[in-house]
Structures are given as structure tokens and as C-alpha cells.
Design goal:
The complex is a heterodimer of chains A (about 325) and B (about 290). With about 325 residues, chain A is an all-alpha fold. Chain A has 14 helices and no strands. Chain B has about 290 residues and is an all-alpha fold. The two termini of chain B are about 40 Å apart. In chain B, helix 9 packs antiparallel against helix 10. Classes of the chains: A mainly alpha (about 325), B mainly alpha (about 290).
Chain lengths: ~325, ~290
């Protein structure tokens, strides 16, 4: 793999050469700044200023229906934060989402690894089958939600199969009970994103250099030993990146929940995003939602910092 | 058994396992396709059938023409809205936002790849827009959009989608531009070509494959985006995913047309995804993994 730093282009090879020629070619500040100007504007518009506004809103008491403009709203101190931290719905949405992410990402990883190992040797129609395997992750999330909603309907095909297999009483109300509903949502996520894990691991396996594997085999290592001691360590950085990206992505989950259960029954399947959507945009408590959003950003920042730690040496961050 | 024959047998065993896995994976989609061709009576029929007994295209027709003849599907459809407006919006918003994102991303990627403008901080701050849950940005953006009159407008969505796919454009294109040897550009500059000319007549053509792949990926991201579209549009500028959710929630037992709409909405992204499958690892990991 040559180290992630190399892949990222953050070290050595990317630095311009020195000297007069270098000055002539690379010392044009005006041109250089112009290149990144549109990007800078966007970063300010959607990252910096909104975060400042959110920070401001989180310390005032503002609701759009109050008739006041947001900058006229009365100061509220840390009241919004206090309420957010103490809100049992927010707490359980966070805990639920974290557990959900842990569960689905682990399952996706294990299934993806198994599939990648399966596809790692040549067999008939391998190419066609592997590209067929990728299509769920291209589908719109809402369509995945729709598919799993329709398949798990009370009078849908899954329940029919259950009745055929286990008798007339085996029918299950998949969206009526919290744990089952979460399980069904998780199934949708696993269905859609196992292909991602498969694809990443599969291409990493294909890039493992053959020499160390041959050497280990010559020395009498078993297939399992080779996989465990040679192959796995060499694809580990790629796996870590894939896990981190997938976990951050899964943590945002909104579409599947919105379509399949709407957070119900009650609030028992609410993800963090859905909770914020409801408080902020359905009930218009924008100040409260801002405080919750800031807390969420802090949480994501800490988690991804911790998650990046094993990668830092290679990323040179 | 000879060694070769043994290997072949193992190959077939792998094929068998892979085929079973794929079949299981495809079943929900096959069900969706089947449902989309079924008349209302068969939507929840017991026993369900994978092949429609009386196949019909009514579910597709009803998407564009709610005034369907009586006796077919009319009473079930009720007050369903035609989906044409959502498709028109998506067809306008998504490509424009994709092009804008590519343009901004290409310039930025060039600046960062060649001159390292902004060091590591700038590219990583762009990445941050993708790291945090988008709902966290939605609250303050609503404040903007209210005062700018951008709510429920196509322009509002285009701006937003340009910004939130920039991370992909920037990082993917940076990877492709890094792959263009800089001595070609240096030679042209020393020969007296202007920087702009070098950028557009040397670098740009050399990364056009990468631009196309990045563009298609950003297209997929924009076409499937739901949360912002849900929050920032209502009637006028709603997009296809929002339309799907309205079909799924507002009109309860509307299963056939729901399935049809879901399939129609998926076709463009499936095609785009198939074309760029070689680049998908790279794309989904912002070019961190190649």
C-alpha cells in the first residue's frame, strides 16, 4: 500500500522543487489564492459562519414563531445546553444511534470481509457477480427504506414466508415493536452498505503484494496463518479508514428511519438526526436544536479524533 | 482427483456460494419490481406471487397522469400528485449543482495539489463538512435561507448541494491532478504559456476521465440527497427523494405506485454507478483509499 501518507500526497513527492525555475513557476500568490477562493467562500458560507450562528443561537431563546428576528432574541445563557443534556429523548437517541452504528458496522465489516475472501480467488463469472454485488450502495437511501418497508409489511412477503414456515401465528408486526423495528432498519443499512465493506476489502486484498505471501507459504505457514499474520496486517490501514468513514456515515442515519418507522413506535427508533429534525424543524425549537447540534458536533469531533488516532502516524496529521 | 480438477471444483463451489448470496440480496429488489407491475388487488394478496398474475403498467402511468380511467386503480390513487414536478426539479438542480461542485473543486484541487495553498488545514476543513451529521448544519442554514429568500427554491438547493459535495470533488480531483506529472506544466510555463492556458489546455484534458468519474459520483450523491431537500423545499422545489417519501407516508396503501416510483428514481443512479464502478472505492473514501 506504500503507507497512507504517500497515498494522500501529504508528504515528499508533492513538494515543488527549489531554485530559480521554481520561483518562476510557483511564486504567483495571486493566481494561487484565486484557485482556492471559490472554495474558501464556500467553507465560510457553509462551515464557519453557520457554526458561529449555531453557537450564537444556542445561547439565546429563539423560535421562528416568536415574531422576533433571531438576532433580537433574549439571551438564555446555558439554559439550552442544560435542557439538551438533561433531555431523556436526546440521551436515548444518542445511545441508541451509537449502539446501532456499532452493531451494523460490525456486521457489515464481517460480511464484507467474508465476501471479499470468497471473491479473492478466481471462479467462473466472478467479475459480473462482483459488480452486481455493488448496486445496493448506489440506490437512494429513501428507496432502500421503501424496499424494506414494503418487504416487511404486516401482510408482506416476509411474514407470509414466516407463516408458511412456522404456522399462522408466526406473523410479526415488524414496525410495531421497538427492537424489531430497529432490527429491520439495521437490516436495511446492512443490506445497503455491506457491499461498500466488501468492495474496499476486496480491492485491498487484490493489492496485497504476492511476495510475502509466497515467502510465508515456502516457510510452511498454513492458509489461516498467512491470512492472519501477513494479509490482514497489510490491509489494516485501509480497513480502519473504511470503518471510520462507514461509522461516521451510519451515525448520520436519517432517511431509512424517516421512511420506515418515522421514529416510532413513539420515539423508540429515533436516531440523533431524526430527533434534531423533529425538535428543530417540526417543533421549531431552533435554539434548543442548535445547542443539541453543537453538543453533537463536539461528540463527533472527539470520536473521530479517537478513531483517527491509530491512523495518525500513517496520515501524518 | 488431480490438482487442477480439485481447483476447478473449488471454483464452482465459490460460484455456488456467491450465487446464493446474490440471489438472497436481490430478492427484495425483485419483489419491488414485481410489486410495481401488480394491480391493487395483488399488492397484499395471500399467497403473494413473485410474478404478477395480471401484470399492469398502471402503477407507472399513475405517476405522471393521476386522472386514470375508473375501474383500474383510480379509487386507490385518490388525490396523488403527479411526480413530474419533482423530476423536473431534480433534473435541473442535480446537474447544475454537480457542475458547480466540479468547477469549484477542480480549481481548489489544482491550487492544493500544485501549490499546497492553505496547507493541510484547508483540505481537511472541506472534509469536515462531510464528517458531521448534516442536520447540525441545517439549523443555522435555515436562518440564512430565511433571510435570503432561498427557501423552497431551486437556486437554494443548487448552492447547498454545491457546497456539500465539494469535499468529494476536491479530494477526488486532487488525487487525479496529483497523478499528472508537473514537469509537463512546468515546461509549458517556461515556454511562455500563461497559467490559465496551462490549466485549461494541458491539465484539464489530462484529467478528463477523473473529472467524468467524479462528476458521476457527485451526481449520485446529489440525486439521492434527502435531508436538505426535505427541510429546505416544500411544494415548489421538491426533489425526487422527497416525492418518494411523500408517496410513502401521505398515501398509506399506495404500494404499487410507490414501488414504481422507487424504481424509476433509481435508474439514473444505477446507470451512473455502473459506469464508475472502477472508481467507487476511491470515491466513497474521498480518495483516501485507491
Amino acid at each position: 500500500m506504500g503507507g497512507l501518507g504517500g497515498v494522500l500526497g501529504l508528504r515528499g513527492g508533492n513538494r515543488p522543487p527549489r531554485g530559480l525555475r521554481h520561483q518562476l513557476i510557483y511564486d504567483d500568490r495571486w493566481f494561487q489564492q484565486l484557485m482556492v477562493l471559490p472554495m474558501q467562500l464556500i467553507i465560510w458560507a457553509v462551515l464557519v459562519v453557520p457554526l458561529l450562528i449555531a453557537l450564537y443561537l444556542s445561547f439565546v431563546d429563539w423560535q421562528p414563531i416568536s415574531g422576533l428576528e433571531w438576532w433580537q432574541a433574549p439571551f438564555a445563557g446555558i439554559e439550552n445546553y442544560r435542557r439538551a443534556i438533561l433531555d431523556p429523548r436526546f440521551q436515548s437517541a444518542i445511545v441508541r444511534t451509537v449502539i446501532f452504528v456499532g452493531a451494523v458496522v460490525s456486521v457489515e465489516f464481517l460480511l464484507g470481509l467474508a465476501l471479499a475472501v470468497l471473491f479473492n480467488r478466481k471462479f467462473p463469472a466472478r467479475r459480473a457477480l462482483s459488480s452486481l454485488l455493488l448496486f445496493p450502495m448506489m440506490l437512494p437511501w429513501v428507496v432502500v427504506g421503501l424496499i424494506f418497508f414494503l418487504v416487511f409489511l404486516e401482510k408482506g412477503p416476509v411474514n407470509y414466508l414466516l407463516r408458511v414456515g412456522f404456522g399462522p401465528a408466526a406473523s410479526v408486526d415488524w414496525f410495531g415493536r421497538p427492537l424489531l423495528a430497529l432490527f429491520t432498519i439495521g437490516l436495511g443499512d446492512v443490506w445497503q452498505w455491506t457491499p461498500f465493506m466488501f468492495l474496499v476489502i476486496y480491492s485491498a486484498l487484490a493489492a496485497v503484494p504476492p511476495e510475502p505471501v509466497e515467502a510465508a507459504r515456502t516457510l510452511g505457514a498454513s492458509d489461516w496463518q498467512i491470512f492472519r499474520r501477513v494479509t490482514l496486517p497489510s490491509i489494516k490501514p485501509v480497513i480502519l479508514i473504511a470503518l471510520l468513514i462507514r461509522a461516521l456515515e451510519a451515525f448520520k442515519i436519517f432517511d431509512l428511519v424517516f421512511i420506515m418507522t418515522g421514529g416510532g413506535p413513539g420515539t423508540s427508533t429515533e436516531s440523533v438526526s431524526l430527533y434534531l429534525y423533529r425538535t428543530g424543524f417540526v417543533f421549531g425549537q431552533l435554539s434548543f436544536a442548535s445547542a443539541a447540534a453543537i453538543l453533537l458536533l463536539a461528540l463527533v469531533l472527539v470520536v473521530s479524533w479517537l478513531g483517527l488516532r491509530p491512523l495518525r502516524r500513517e496520515l501524518e496529521l | 482427483m488431480s490438482r487442477a480438477a480439485h481447483g476447478r471444483a473449488r471454483g464452482w463451489a465459490r460460484l455456488a456460494v456467491a450465487a446464493v448470496v446474490l440471489l438472497l440480496m436481490m430478492l427484495p429488489v425483485i419483489w419491488l419490481v414485481s410489486l410495481s407491475f401488480k394491480p391493487p388487488r395483488e399488492w397484499l394478496a395471500t399467497p403473494p406471487s413473485l410474478i404478477p398474475r395480471n401484470p399492469t403498467v398502471d402503477n407507472y402511468v399513475v405517476l405522471v397522469a393521476p386522472g386514470i380511467p375508473k375501474g383500474t386503480i383510480g379509487e386507490v390513487v385518490g388525490a396523488a400528485q403527479p411526480v413530474t414536478r419533482a423530476f423536473v426539479n431534480s433534473v435541473i438542480v442535480v446537474p447544475l449543482a454537480t457542475l458547480a461542485s466540479l468547477g469549484v473543486g477542480f480549481l481548489g484541487a489544482y491550487g492544493i495539489s500544485r501549490f499546497r495553498v492553505g496547507g493541510n488545514f484547508l483540505p481537511f476543513s472541506v472534509l469536515a463538512t462531510r464528517m458531521f451529521p448534516p442536520i447540525a448544519f441545517a439549523v443555522p442554514l435555515l436562518v440564512y435561507y430565511r433571510s435570503a429568500g432561498l427557501i423552497d427554491t431551486r437556486l437554494g438547493l443548487i448552492l447547498m448541494y454545491t457546497a456539500f459535495t465539494l469535499a468529494f470533488s476536491l479530494w477526488l480531483l486532487k488525487g487525479f491532478i496529483d497523478g499528472v506529472p508537473r514537469h509537463i506544466e512546468e515546461a509549458a510555463i517556461l515556454d511562455g504559456a500563461s497559467r490559465w492556458r496551462v490549466l485549461f489546455t494541458i491539465t484539464l484534458p489530462l484529467v478528463r476521465g477523473g473529472l467524468a468519474a467524479t462528476g458521476l459520483f457527485v451526481f449520485i450523491m446529489n440525486w439521492t440527497e434527502f435531508l436538505f431537500a426535505l427541510i429546505f423545499t416544500s411544494r415548489t422545489a421538491l426533489t425526487v427523494p422527497v416525492q418518494i417519501s411523500q408517496y410513502a407516508s401521505a398515501v398509506g396503501r399506495f404500494y404499487g405506485p410507490q414501488a414504481a416510483l422507487g424504481l424509476v428514481a433509481s435508474v439514473p443512479v444505477l446507470v451512473a454507478g455502473y459506469v464508475i464502478q472502477r472508481y467507487l472505492v476511491r470515491a466513497f473514501t474521498f480518495g483516501l483509499v485507491k
